[in-house]
């Protein structure tokens, strides 16, 4: 082979090798879309700057706070979220990070929707918002704190007595389900009684609609009744580690009572936790106690209503893992207390129920016309200690005495108690219809549906019980016929 042939062969081999290299070479991806590079031109920064100058009301509505409060919050959080400049590109500023996070919490928009408002990529927003929420919780942690001595607890009790006429009350407790996207591989771990997936927000509120205890993250494997029992607060309460004052005399009375929390039927009756009497066959005295307790417990309902209506992310399905969703919820509660204590009027205006103590009429808060947070499931039939029942009975006696009564409480009981409702007289045909209905109810429940269709049998059994309750209780059948059905 001549030198010319060797040269030609080498050229051919080189061309083939270069061709293979060209095939293997991938198209280079851009690190940022062109329109995102023009963040200063397309983001909401200009809008916020204009609102700050020309429309303070719209500015408050956009961020749930005024410009001064935003500036103060930004200075608190700046050292934790500000990034360093590099030679490659400028970082997203601390102001843009806080603006994006507040808009996410306020609007409840997804990261994809928020991308077009902020000119920040959705993946980057996911990191920024979680980091900023962690920073908010850290800098505002002093705004949510459990009292650490007896005097602080007594100050809360004095506020409840002054504003809501419930002495020895140290807080109103309640819990809500926060809906989340089903986490992969968790099965029914976060499944709740409304056939959705959620984590539980448990909170205690003082007389000024401020959270003093927040616990987030419990799942549905813990029943609604057990959520409170599994909180650190309850464990410390049972162990008497919360420095709650010792029992003391009620105002102008010789009755010695402990300091208590107030809750609804989702909670157990305890020495330091009061709940209403069962609504079945209420006496007048019990109905008045329920009204007085409801008046104090209304504070926590309003606090949750203000929280969810101002931070609408809580009303939507949070598409994050439970740990990150818990951070989102905690950040909202800390911001709630921060804005409440800063007395930002636009934040809480219209968020309270207003009661006319003369006529007993109630003007509902603005959030009640909107979607509400999912409450805890109310359960009954729990074992209760004798001492807890005695404490509730003592409060009931006090509220019906001259020393503890308020002038409007009798007018505020809208319906007469069950033991004072008049019996209704029925015709012969109506009585026969009720007889045949109850007989059919008893006959159908004896059918062997539970063997082939167990779920259908359980549902039908519940409907039958509901019908029987309506027939016997709501129609107020004479006692002799009621005993006949029960026997």
TrEMBL record:
Reported cofactor(s): a divalent metal cation
Transmembrane segment boundaries: none
GO cellular component terms, semicolon-separated: nucleus
Cellular compartment(s): Nucleus
UniProt entry keywords in alphabetical sequence: Hydrolase, Metal-binding, Nuclease, Nucleus
GO MF annotation: an example: nuclease activity
Domain DDE Tnp4: 173-337
Classification via Pfam families: DDE_Tnp_4
Broad class of the protein's primary localization: nucleus
Family: Belongs to the HARBI1 family.
Protein known as: Protein ANTAGONIST OF LIKE HETEROCHROMATIN PROTEIN 1-like
Organism of origin: Aphis craccivora
């Amino acid at each position: 082979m001549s030198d010319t042939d060797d040269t030609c062969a080498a050229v051919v081999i080189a061309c083939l090798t270069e061709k293979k290299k060209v095939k293997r070479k991938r198209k280079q991806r851009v690190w940022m879309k062109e329109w995102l590079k023009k963040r200063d031109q397309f983001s909401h920064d200009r809008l916020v700057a204009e609102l700050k100058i020309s429309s303070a009301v719209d500015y408050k509505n956009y961020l749930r706070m005024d410009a001064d409060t935003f500036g103060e919050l930004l200075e608190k959080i700046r050292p934790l979220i500000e990034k360093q400049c590099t030679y490659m590109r400028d970082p997203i500023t601390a102001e843009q990070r806080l603006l994006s996070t507040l808009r996410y919490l306020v609007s409840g928009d997804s990261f994809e929707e928020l991308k077009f408002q902020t000119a920040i990529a959705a993946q980057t927003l996911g990191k920024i918002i979680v980091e900023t929420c962690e920073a908010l919780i850290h800098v505002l942690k002093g705004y949510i704190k459990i009292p650490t001595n007896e005097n602080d607890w007594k100050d809360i009790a004095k506020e409840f007595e002054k504003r809501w006429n419930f002495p020895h009350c140290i807080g109103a407790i309640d819990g809500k389900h926060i809906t989340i996207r089903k986490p992969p591989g968790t099965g029914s771990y976060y499944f709740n009684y409304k056939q959705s997936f959620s984590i539980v927000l448990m909170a205690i509120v003082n007389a000024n609609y401020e959270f003093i205890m927040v616990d987030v993250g419990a799942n549905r494997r813990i029943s609604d009744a057990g959520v409170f029992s599994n909180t650190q607060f309850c464990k410390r309460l049972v162990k008497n580690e919360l420095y709650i004052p010792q029992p003391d005399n009620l105002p102008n009375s010789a009755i010695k009572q402990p300091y208590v929390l107030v809750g609804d039927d989702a909670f157990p009756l305890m020495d330091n936790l009061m709940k209403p009497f069962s609504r079945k066959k209420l006496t007048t005295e019990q109905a008045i106690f329920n009204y007085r307790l409801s008046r104090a417990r209304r504070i926590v309902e309003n606090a949750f209503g203000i929280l969810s209506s101002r931070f609408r992310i809580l009303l939507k399905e949070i598409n994050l893992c439970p740990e990150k969703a818990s951070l989102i919820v905690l950040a909202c509660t800390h911001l709630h207390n921060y804005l409440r204590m800063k007395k930002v009027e636009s934040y809480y205006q219209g968020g309270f129920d207003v009661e006319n103590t003369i006529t007993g009429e109630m003007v509902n808060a603005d959030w009640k016309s909107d979607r509400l947070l999912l409450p805890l499931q109310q359960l009954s039939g729990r074992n209760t200690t004798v001492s807890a029942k005695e404490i509730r009975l003592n409060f009931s006696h006090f509220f019906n005495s001259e020393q503890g009564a308020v002038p409007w409480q009798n007018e505020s009981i809208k319906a007469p108690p069950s033991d004072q409702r008049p019996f209704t007289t029925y015709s012969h045909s109506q009585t026969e219809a009720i007889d045949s209905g109850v007989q059919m109810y008893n006959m159908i429940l004896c059918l062997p549906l539970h063997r082939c269709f167990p779920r259908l049998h359980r549902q039908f059994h519940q409907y039958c019980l509901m019908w029987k309750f309506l027939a016997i209780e709501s129609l107020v059948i004479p006692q002799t016929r009621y005993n006949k059905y029960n026997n």
